[in-house]
Design brief:
disordered N terminus, alpha/beta, 404 residues, 2 domains, Rossmann fold, 42% helix, 17 helices, six-stranded parallel beta sheet, eight-stranded mixed beta sheet
Length: 404
Amino acid sequence: MDRAGLVCQELAHPLTYLRVAVVTETYPPEINGVAMTTGRMVDGLVAAGHRVDLIRPRQAHEGGSIQLADGAEGVEEMLSRGIPLPRYANLQLGLPARKVLLRRWSVQRPDVVQVVTEGPLGWSALTAARKLRLPVISEFHTNFHRYSGHYGVGWLKRPIAAYLRKFHNRADLTLVPTRALCGELAEQGIARVDVVSRGVDTALFDPARRSASLRRSWGLEEDDLAVVYVGRIAPEKNLALLEKAFDAIRARQPRARLILVGSGPAAQALQARQPAAVFCGPRSGPFLAEHYASGDLFLFPSLTETYGNVVAEALASGLPVVAYRDAAARELIEHQVHGWLAEPGDEAAFVAGAVALAEAPELRSRQRLAARERVASLAWQAIVERLVTLQRQVILSSPVTARR
């Protein structure tokens, strides 16, 4: 047997169940795609018999000092200090905790460190893991360098991109949710990138949750059109195009209603411009699923997504989706089968697609069925299994592991 075979045989038992240190600056019950995805991954790891060492900032209701916390079974938590993240209400930016992590991981070494976010806490986790010669995987969730132009600091785009490149190149592997983003990061000089997609809970997000009473609370009858947007109400989501598309729909269907689920810094100004729209605020769990399923058409004009969990959730809920051919929409939607795809930046095509589907109830009915079928196989269990496979590969390729 060759050396690789001996190593695999020797490590077969220790790698059956892993101890994974997960470092993240956002986690449920916070409402955003990164928190939701990380929570699902942690739940899936524990359900498969692995143990998780969860490092995260204390949330607003939990106070501010570093301390241990009682996590779910199979999860040990360390709550670090944090400061409020500008323009993101109720989110904390984790402060550096290098010394604490060095002590913690020296006493109880994880098999692999999974760094979810690129803030100060994530950087200090990378530094501690490198010093202890632990295998490290990073994740790329948010196009911060793309966001900069939407907040008047476009000049920061290059420095942010340089920081992200340095951050992720310190890891043994960087995970992204789409094949397209994998290629994009490779072009930007991030060396080791692989794909772990996102799942969707098809038991939660289900067309059967459609609610006539909820629609009536929106001022709609069964045959009226509910145009839904779910997500952060913020400049980087390109909501001017959402308004433009809905105004074109309403010019043809005056009883159509725009339904917005979420919150953010642009909500007040948007409400002033769209007084007839229904602003539902943040929703989660069955309440969120009911809002999706009670809609008729989903508009998602963003061009800053790394994935866009809401696209998969809308499809699972039986909603035809109008989006740019980007991120999750590019991966999941076939044009005019599950919705309508416009080429990135082609606003006229986006608006035309929204109007075309708004005026074609029979086509929307066919697309509702196709949308649901499209994501039926995206179970979180399969996504977690893919993650664990890559974690084991990184562990076995680590120079420290190879010398055991």
